[in-house]
Design brief:
Helix content: 25-40%
Distance between the termini: 18 Å
Number of strands: 12
Largest sheet: 6 strands, antiparallel
Radius of gyration: 17 Å
Structural class: alpha+beta
Strand order of the largest sheet: 1-6-2-3-4-5
Shape: globular
Oligomer: single chain
Length: about 220
């Protein structure tokens, strides 16, 4: 029998934000609106908007504001505008017709100019949780999404961490931090949503080495 599934990213984010230690690792997140998008662009310079439901990088768009020029990138296509209003109109046409959330943009550590993030999969077995995999996902050249179904390259988490952070021992230290944060999140989510039996955590590490939780899936690919 399949365990409980939660497609809505916002519900899982809300549950995790109630824990102060975990919340420090979650990019600022709001529901999509013109007002929120304008405010977050002025605060962070770059944000990512993503559908509340769905995976595989489908419908994910990066939006930026640099020196008064607004732009958005979907897959390898980028469009630029001289005003927020013009950009917002075009963005609404580019969206996939689902409800969206806005997430603070994180400038990820890179390998050869390509951003990398990490997927950690855990499953519940015999009353306890077991780690199934911990891998890095390196974006295809020219893309900002790292999903393997979009041409990303998979490598071990340790190799990805060492190559992107370029510090001796960084792979071991960050993998341990990722596991500790994952264990905390599992306890929170299991209490909030009884019946879940598999989780996929998407992590990013920025260029200063800080660990971020991008989203959690209850039916990880």
């Amino acid at each position: 029998m399949a365990g409980r599934q939660l497609a809505n990213k916002w519900l899982k984010t809300e549950a995790l934000l109630r824990n102060a230690d975990v919340a420090a690792h979650i990019p600022q997140t709001r529901m999509f609106s013109a007002e929120s998008l304008r405010s977050m662009l002025h605060q962070f310079g770059m944000v990512v908007i993503k559908p509340l439901r769905g995976g595989g990088g489908y419908g994910v768009i990066k939006v930026s504001c640099t020196r008064g020029i607004y732009s958005f990138t979907y897959m390898s296509s980028q469009r630029s505008f001289s005003s927020f209003e013009a950009m917002f109109r075009a963005l609404n046409r580019a969206k996939v017709g689902r409800r969206y959330m806005i997430q603070q943009g994180i400038h990820l550590a890179r390998i050869g100019g390509r951003p990398i993030d990490y997927r950690v999969k855990v499953v519940k077995q015999g009353g306890g949780w077991v780690y199934r995999s911990m891998v890095g996902r390196l974006a295809r050249p020219g893309l900002f999404v790292t999903n393997l179904c979009k041409g990303g390259t998979q490598l071990t988490a340790r190799k990805g961490l060492e190559l992107s952070l370029r510090r001796r021992g960084a792979g071991i230290k960050k993998r341990k931090e990722m596991r500790n944060l994952t264990n905390t999140c599992i306890a929170i989510l299991e209490a909030a949503f009884p019946g879940i039996d598999q989780l996929g955590f998407d992590y990013g590490i920025d260029q200063s080495g800080k660990l971020w939780i991008f989203e959690v899936n209850t039916r990880p690919q």
